[in-house]
Each structure stands twice: as structure tokens, then as C-alpha cells.
Design a protein that fits this description.
The complex is a heterodimer of chains A (about 290) and B (about 350). Chain A is mainly α and about 290 residues long. Chain A is built from 13 helices and no strands. Chain A has a single domain, classed as MetI-like fold (Orthogonal Bundle), CATH 1.10.3720.10. Chain B folds into two domains: about 180 residues, 3-Layer(aba) Sandwich (Rossmann fold); about 110 residues, RNA polymerase II/Efflux pump adaptor protein, barrel-sandwich hybrid domain (OB fold (Dihydrolipoamide Acetyltransferase, E2P), Beta Barrel), CATH 2.40.50. Classes of the chains: A mainly alpha (about 290), B alpha+beta (about 350). Chains A and B meet through helix 8 and helix 9 of A and strand 6, helix 2 and strand 14 of B. Chain B: Keywords: ATP-binding, Cell membrane, Ion transport, Iron, Iron transport, Membrane, Molybdenum, Nucleotide-binding, Transport.
Chain lengths: ~290, ~350
């Protein structure tokens, strides 16, 4: 019997001395290089940076610092700001109540056409907001498919009301939340839910007491994204809810309108929005972005 | 030899009586499993044999297919959702809830089963006490060592007072040193447990130390079951033989001679007829450079060295040739024989060191 004997492999005898070796470089950020960046990358990068920062700098440079307090003291400003903060928060709340279960459904269940549903949910992300506003009018307007019934059955009309602002903002902002939460859910180990079930938790209890706390950072990040998107919403709001001061005129609408006749007022309002955005970003950075990276 | 009859619980009686049938694609699990209260049964098998699937089926996390049945203490559980089964599970990587303290992890089960919060926490504290972890009540799982996390996981599963405790590779996530301690503790807790425990492992030592009875599963079916010593003495598949470290052959016996399917014959002390297994430990093999002349050994084969590796304080020699076999030699003997891969040697085994049993 002289079948070809496999070559000796005694060299791998001390293999277990290798374990524990490659764990080392953990603290280092992977992919970050020391030394100079090549010019073809550096140059466009700097141009891009300037391009993004220049408008903000211009806003600060041209701001009417002298009359700023006077500009901001106008009651219309506070009215618009209050309305903006309220409607963005309400839209985020609506997005949470409807969006988190929707995200769970997309991440945790299997049903025919799930891919299509997911695509449709993300559609408002890429849809021009004005088109969204028109679509909302056709659906929920006084003569809309559903709006007509709302009007005749309950006497509810949404267009050109504060509720309409909330609806328009939620329509545009909710996909951000759904996508963010769905991603977090997919990354979370579904076996925690199984473990909870073997301990006697129903599927809903498992979701509420185990999954929800686990994905809380994702929900928070998604909420902030949705809230910021709702705060800046313009197209769908003006199309569906109109531009009535005190009722549907949010900050972005007020800025746009002010720009027509009083640019100082527009700049002052813009500064306020910029401040809010920076505050949101700072909050995100401290709480979740660093934790996630 | 296998135990005369594994304890079979009548469907109406106490304990576990199950036939776990799960079909998934081309894979089919079909495992018959029964145990009396107080029994610890180990499902032992290679990766992909279906052990974890069997455990999931018992827990209700994977539905049984056509032909399956599951009775526990006289109650049919096939269609019962996992949250309503009196079953506790210790998962392989424990799956302790990271946002809850050790205490709240243990209290989670009783809470879900309707125990008031204060009472559930008192019970959980008692469990921590019993596990020797009282000072870790407020600790998050992330801050527990592997052994501590394992004990919290066992306590969490036991806190719901299950009638069936399932453990999926309960020691696999631990390093060798911790393993020894935790294995001893787990054995202690399992001995105290008054209901049925089923544990899944691919480690024969864990299985033999922790369980009263082993059920060996390969490719979705039971290939052998019995007490640890029966299995260790009389393996019936190559996988089990390898696990318990025996050379195993199958052949036809005619008195003291067993003619193997692939050529040579082995002389044994047992007198048997018909299909049999023959097993002998690698330590029973003696190697010679030249054909031994005056040897009393009846079992003599010419072999070729296929490989050498250290095995404890000995050298395990893999041999091919007339009869593929493994031999254990001292380092000195290996050096004196000048063994190298490719060397030609003669192997002898005394009949008295073989063990033959009906197939």
C-alpha cells in the first residue's frame, strides 16, 4: 500500500502561541493614515469644505448684529418660531408612534411584498416635497380621496390648519425615523426577543421591555433626524397648509417671505434656525454619534 | 453495551416524552427523546447535527413538523407558544439583557409570569445568593466575567421554575480555566434540579460529567444513546469513537475472529457471531520497526506513518495501510523507532486489549 502520503505538517505544532496576538491594535482607528494626503484628493476636499462653510460664514458676516435684538423682538418671529418648534415636535411624535412599529414590521417580520413596502416607505425621502404637498392635498384636501370623508363624517379639514402643518411635516420626516430605527433593529440581535419569550414574555412584552430599550439610541437618533427635517420643511408645508401667520407660517416660510421685502429680518430668522441646527448637531454628537461610531 | 431500556415516560406520566421532527430544506431532524424528572440528558453531536434545532423545538422557538410530538408532565406542548411553556433556556452566549442589572435579568421571568415586582426582586436576590453572586445584584451583564454571566443565565432560566431546563453549549463560551469551576458548579445545580434537564454540547467531557444519559445525534438522527460509560466503552460510529478516543472497526465475527469489511481480521477475546464492532484504545497499540518474530500478539499489521502530533504527554501516531489506526507512544519510544511521516512500521495489538460487541 503506497498511496501518496500527505506531506508532514509538523510546523504547525506551536499554533496556539499565536492566539491573543492580533487583538492588540484595538484602540487605534482603522483606516486613518498618517502623512500627507495626495493633491488630487486634498484639493477638491478643501474646495468642498469651503463650499459648505462659505454660505454660513456669509450669513454671519451679513447679519444685522446692531438691529438683531430689535428684529428678534418682533412678535411674528416668536410666533413663527413657536409654531415651528411645536409642529416639528408634534410631527416627530406622530412619526414615533407610527414609524417605530412600521420599522419593527419591516425588520422583524416576513410578508409578501416587504421589499416593495420598504421602497414605498422611503419614497418620501427622495420625492420633491412640493410633490408631496400636492399628493397630500389630493388625499387629505377638502375634496381629497380621504379628506372628503373626514370633512363630511367628522367635520375635520386638514389643509391650511396647524394640524395640516404637522401632517405635511410628518409625511416628509417619518421615513428618516423608519429607516434609522429599522437599521438599528436589524443590527440588534433578535435572539434577545427569543430569550425574553422563553422567560414568559409575549411578543409585545418582549418588544417593549427588551427590544425597545436596546434600540433606544437608534430611536433617539432617528427622532432628532426627523425633528430637524420637520423643522426645515418648506415645500410640502406651503403646498398643503399654506402660509398663514400664526397658524401655518413656520420659520422657513417666514424666512422666505421676509426675504421678499425685509432681508435683515430674513437673516435674523435664519440665524435663529442656524442656532437651533447647531444645538441639535451638538446634542447628536455628544449623545449618539460618538457612541455609534 | 447499551442500557437495557432508557426510561420511557408514558405520555400521561411525569417527565419528557418527545419526538422532535423538524424539516428545513433538505435537512431533517428526527430525534426521539424521553426523560424522567431529575434526569439530565445530553444531546451530543458534531456541528450541524441538529442539536440546537432540537433544543429550539423543545423551547417552541422552532415549530415541530408533521409527525412530531412533545409531552411534558402529561401535558401536550406541540402547539403551545414559547412564552406559555414551562421551559427555561440557557442560551449558548447567555443572551443576558444588556440594559438590565443581573438582578433584573433574573427577575424578568417571574415578572412576565405575573409575580409582583417586589416579590420578583426578592426571589431574584435569593437566586443570586444561591449562585454566590449576591454582591453583583446591580451589575450590568457587560461587567460580569464569563463564569458569572453563565451563573446569572442559569439562575434566570431556573427562576421561572421550569419543568424542563434546556442548556445550549453551556460551557462553550468559557476559557479552559473557568470551565473547570463552572462545570463543577453547574453539575451541582443540575443535581439539585428536580425536573428534566436537556443539554446540548459537542464536548464529550461536558456531556459525561454533567449528564446521566447521552443521546448522540448525527445528521439529524440518534445514532447511539446510553450512560456515559456505555458510550465510552462501546462507541457505534466513527464520530463517537473519535470523541472517546478509540480505534473502531466494524466487521463479521466468527468466534474469536472478526473479519473486517476492508480486509484484515482482528482476534478478540469475546466470542461472538454476526455483525460486530471492535474497539481498542490507541495506547494498546505497540509499534515495531521490523516484523516481530516471537511476539505473542495475534493482531499484526504492516502500516505506514501518515502523521504525528503531540497528544497530552504522548505522541499520537496516525497510521495508514492494511488497517488505518491511531497509536499512542511515549516521546522516547517515538525517537527510538525513528518515526517520520512515511516510515513503514509493524503494529501489534493484544487480543485482551480489544473489545468486541454486537453491532
Amino acid at each position: 500500500m503506497s498511496d501518496p502520503v500527505t506531506p508532514p505538517d509538523i510546523s504547525d505544532a506551536p499554533a496556539d502561541t499565536l492566539t491573543g496576538g492580533p487583538r492588540r491594535g484595538r484602540g487605534r482607528t482603522p483606516g486613518r493614515m498618517r502623512g500627507g494626503a495626495p493633491l488630487p484628493l486634498l484639493l477638491p476636499a478643501l474646495v468642498g469644505l469651503v463650499f459648505l462653510l462659505l454660505p454660513l460664514v456669509a450669513l454671519l458676516v451679513r447679519a444685522p448684529w446692531g438691529s438683531l435684538s430689535e428684529q428678534l423682538a418682533k412678535p411674528e418671529v416668536w410666533q413663527a418660531l413657536r409654531l415651528s418648534l411645536f409642529s416639528a415636535t408634534a410631527a416627530t411624535a406622530v412619526s414615533l408612534v407610527l414609524g417605530v412599529p412600521l420599522a419593527w414590521l419591516l425588520a422583524r417580520t416576513e410578508f409578501p411584498g416587504r421589499g416593495l413596502v420598504r421602497a414605498l416607505v422611503t419614497l418620501p425621502l427622495v420625492l420633491p416635497p412640493v410633490v408631496g404637498g400636492v399628493a397630500l392635498l389630493l388625499a387629505l384636501g377638502r375634496n381629497g380621496v380621504v379628506g372628503r370623508l373626514l370633512d363630511s363624517w367628522f367635520g375635520i379639514t386638514l389643509p391650511f390648519t396647524t394640524a395640516g402643518v404637522v401632517v405635511a411635516e410628518a409625511f416628509v420626516a417619518m421615513p428618516f425615523l423608519v429607516i434609522s430605527v429599522e437599521g438599528t433593529l436589524r443590527a440588534a440581535d433578535p435572539r434577545y426577543e427569543e430569550a425574553a419569550m422563553t422567560l414568559g414574555a409575549s411578543r409585545f412584552t418582549a418588544f417593549r421591555r427588551v427590544t425597545l430599550p436596546l434600540i433606544a439610541p437608534g430611536i433617539a437618533a432617528g427622532s432628532v433626524l426627523a425633528w430637524a427635517r420637520a423643522l426645515g420643511e418648506f415645500g410640502a408645508t406651503i403646498t398643503f397648509a399654506g402660509n398663514f401667520p400664526g397658524r401655518t407660517q413656520t420659520m422657513p416660510l417666514a424666512v422666505y417671505l421676509a426675504l421678499q421685502n425685509d432681508s435683515d429680518a430674513a437673516i435674523a430668522l435664519s440665524l435663529v434656525l442656524l442656532l437651533v441646527s447647531v444645538a441639535v448637531l451638538a446634542g447628536l454628537r455628544d449623545r449618539w454619534m460618538t457612541a455609534a461610531s | 453495551m447499551t442500557e437495557t431500556d432508557p426510561v420511557t415516560a408514558a405520555p400521561s406520566g411525569k417527565g419528557l416524552d418527545a419526538r422532535l421532527v423538524v424539516r428545513r430544506g433538505s435537512f431533517r431532524l428526527d430525534v426521539e427523546l424521553s426523560a424522567a424528572p431529575g434526569d439530565v440528558v445530553a444531546l451530543l453531536g458534531p456541528n450541524g447535527a441538529g442539536k440546537t434545532t432540537a433544543l429550539r423545538a423543545l423551547a417552541g422557538l422552532t415549530p415541530l413538523s408533521e409527525g412530531g410530538r412533545l409531552w411534558l408532565d402529561g401535558v401536550r406542548l406541540d402547539r403551545t407558544p414559547p412564552e406559555s411553556r414551562p421551559v427555561g433556556v440557557v442560551f449558548q452566549d447567555y443572551l443576558l439583557f444588556p440594559h438590565l442589572s443581573a438582578l433584573d435579568n433574573i427577575a424578568f421571568g417571574p415578572r412576565c409570569r405575573g409575580v409582583p415586582k417586589a416579590e420578583a426582586r426578592t426571589q431574584a436576590a435569593a437566586w443570586l445568593e444561591r449562585m454566590g453572586l449576591a454582591e453583583f445584584a446591580g451589575t450590568r451583564p457587560r461587567r460580569l466575567s464569563g463564569g458569572q454571566a453563565q451563573r446569572v443565565a442559569v439562575a434566570r432560566a431556573l427562576a421561572t421554575r421550569p419543568r424542563l431546563l434546556l442548556l445550549d453549549e453551556p460551557l462553550a463560551a468559557l476559557d479552559a480555566r473557568t470551565r473547570l469551576d463552572v462545570r463543577a458548579q453547574l453539575r451541582h445545580h443540575l443535581a439539585d434540579f428536580e425536573a428534566v434537564a436537556v443539554l446540548v454540547t459537542h464536548d464529550p467531557l461536558d456531556a459525561m460529567v454533567l449528564a446521566d444519559r447521552l443521546v448522540v445525534v448525527e445528521d439529524g438522527r440518534v445514532v447511539q444513546e446510553g450512560g456515559p460509560s456505555d458510550i465510552a466503552r462501546g462507541p457505534r460510529t466513527d464520530y463517537i469513537a473519535q470523541l472517546v478516543g478509540l480505534n473502531l472497526y466494524r466487521g463479521e465475527a466468527e468466534g474469536h475472529t472478526v473479519r473486517l469489511e476492508a480486509g484484515p481480521a482482528i482476534t478478540t477475546t469475546e466470542r461472538l457471531d454476526g455483525p460486530v464492532f471492535v474497539a481498542f484504545p490507541p495506547g494498546a497499540v505497540t509499534l515495531h520497526r521490523d516484523r516481530p518474530s516471537g511476539s505473542s500478539a495475534r493482531n499484526l499489521w504492516q502500516c505506514r506513518v501518515a502523521g504525528l502530533e503531540t497528544h497530552g504527554d504522548q505522541i499520537r501516531v496516525d497510521l495508514t495501510g492494511e488497517l488505518p489506526l491511531a497509536a499512542d507512544l511515549t516521546t522516547v519510544a517515538t525517537a527510538e523507532l525513528g518515526l517520520r511521516p512515511g516510515s513503514s512500521v509493524w503494529a501489534t495489538v493484544k487480543a485482551a486489549q480489544t473489545h468486541a460487541y454486537p453491532a
